[in-house]
Amino acid sequence: MPTMKSAKKRLRQNVKHNLRNRASRSALKTQIKGFLGVVKEGTVQEAEEKLRLTVKTLDKAASKGILHKKTANRKKSRLATKLNQIKAAAQQKS
Basic residues: which segments have biased composition (predicted)? Predict the structure, then answer.
């Protein structure tokens, strides 16, 4: 345990930030899983809307330092690729 006053304060801040980041990271994972679930169903319109919200969440996490910027970009790219795949499959059916 810290003994100095400033170290005690840093510990309190770290605990608070850890909880906030963990909640944010969990919400992000839930958002991504929701998008992947919609992609499995194959509804293009709903998937586009979910992707928009997921990209927004990823950008917010990257700006707050929860995710690295390049990690967020990589995830966005992979999710967009999945959307494009179901769009192509939907066009072939038509």
Answer: 69-79
